[in-house]
Amino acid sequence: MEENRAWELLLEAREALERSGATPQSNPKSFEALYAAQGSDWFWWFGDDQDSGNDAQFDRLFRTHLSNVYRALGLEVPQALERYLVRRTVVWSFTRPVPSIQNSDRLTVQTNCPGLLTWWGDTAPPNEAPLVPLGGVMAGVRRYQIGLGPFPEGTLYFRFRCTQPDCGGQGRCCQGETQNVQVV
Fold first, then answer.
1. Would the pTM count as exceeding 0.70?
2. What is the DSSP letter of 45?
3. Per-residue confidence of the chain (184 residues) as pLDDT tens digits?
């Protein structure tokens, strides 16, 4: 659960402060960063019963404040603070491929053509499903997408097959090449 991870990271930063022997007088920047993390909106807006609409920003700010505790102490920032705490939806497209996602993320694959997506993992059997249209009556259908995940760590492979009747097969998405995204 995201909230438990946040508390753990906060407690670890507090412990780093204690071990360093820093005080609010000797290292005010480290304590200001800790106070900012403790007073941030993270604990108010996150959790299964809340949605801020800006979870990714609150997540980034919270982790930045905690990272600043370590920086002010002259310590290496723990790698755990580089990982998002909240689940994200990452959009992958042929014009903006994403090389990696976290294992808690969902991946949305978008194309400009209708079609079928086949996906599989290192140990998972292949699945296939059609992409659903985006847009509406007034806007017209301009994109198609499918949401996948979350996935275990490893490599996610997928291949798109265009089903547009008048498609000449020349588009980047119509080449049928296997794509991959690392899940970390």
1. no
2. H
3. 566 888 899 999 999 999 999 999 999 999 999 999 988 766 666 655 666 667 778 888 999 999 999 999 999 999 999 888 877 889 999 999 999 999 889 999 999 889 999 999 998 899 999 999 987 666 556 789 999 999 999 999 999 999 988 777 777 777 778 999 999 9
Structure tokens at 15: 């412990």
Contacts for 2 with CB less than 8 Å, ≥ 6 apart: 46, 47, 85, 86, 87
Find tokens 């659960």 and name the residue.
1
- Closest Cα partner for 34 from 19, 56, 17? 17
Phi/psi region, residue 79 (left: phi>0; alpha: psi -120 to 50; beta: rest), is: alpha
Cβ(178)–Cβ(158) under 8 Å?
Answer: yes
At residue 76, φ and ψ (nearest 5 deg) are: -70, 135
